[in-house]
Specification:
The complex is a heterodimer. By secondary structure, chain A is mainly beta. Chain A has no helices and eleven strands. In chain A, a hairpin with a 2-residue loop joins β5 and β6. Chain A is globular. Classes of the chains: A mainly beta, B mainly beta.
């Protein structure tokens, strides 16, 4: 049973560029959430996708956008990258209406903006 | 005030010690509570869910006090392999019900 997978694992981008991160949820899960984790901090919620729609959004600018595909996989896009966007980006999957709301995390994509 | 607050530590304890972590949350309507463990530069992994009745998993015991909006994690007989950051997680918050809200994490180092 494949867990949550993310790609790429590491990425280096230049300020002003755009980046796309990808996530495949755990088998049987239908909901994908994205988090940003800066060094020494807890993960911060970016947004959640369910049924191909953004269900809820955290306090992040519109430069952060996403998408969910019919197979439940998801993408996170960040435009006009800033140095402060350097962080570990985590994808978590869960099942709406399941016995538990526990979320399972992928290994993350470490983004460095230079 | 942060929605979820934890003592960042670090907690340095000898092997075999008992250590307790505490966490407070601000939204009384929060629905679900968890402890996650995160090793350096790795993803968070679910350690245990937290219930009002308390729950135990081997050397780990979690407690929830809804009246005080307080969550705890007790680790007995600490092992070197317990060294990690422990994240308190509350589902739901002041502005929604679907997201996980993380504390900043408490660092634990178990010393030989």
């Amino acid at each position: 049973d494949a867990g949550v997978t993310q790609s790429p694992t590491h990425l280096i981008k230049t300020r002003g560029q755009q980046v796309t991160l990808r996530c495949s949820p755990k088998s049987g899960h239908d909901t994908v959430s994205w988090y940003q984790q800066a060094l020494g901090q807890g993960p911060q919620f970016i947004f959640q996708y369910y049924e191909e729609e953004e269900r809820q959004r955290g306090n992040f600018p519109d430069r952060f956008s996403g998408h969910q595909f019919p197979n439940y996989s998801s993408e996170l896009n960040v435009n006009a990258l800033l140095l402060g966007d350097s962080a570990l980006y985590l994808c978590a999957s869960s099942l709406i209406g399941g016995a538990s709301t526990e979320a399972f995390f992928g290994q993350g994509t470490r983004l460095t903006v230079v | 005030r942060k929605e979820v607050e934890q003592d960042p530590g670090p907690f340095n304890v000898p092997e075999g010690a008992t250590v307790a972590f505490n966490c407070t949350y601000s939204n009384s309507a929060s629905q679900s509570f968890f402890w996650y463990r995160q090793d350096c530069r790795k993803e968070p992994k679910l350690l245990m869910s937290v219930y009002s009745s308390g729950n135990e998993d081997g050397r780990f015991t979690a407690q929830l006090n809804r009246a005080s909006q307080y969550i705890s994690l007790l680790i007995r007989d600490s092992k070197l392999s317990d060294s990690a950051t422990y994240l308190c997680v509350v589902e739901g918050g002041t502005s929604g019900t679907y997201k996980y809200i993380f504390g900043t994490g408490t660092r634990l180092k178990v010393l030989a």
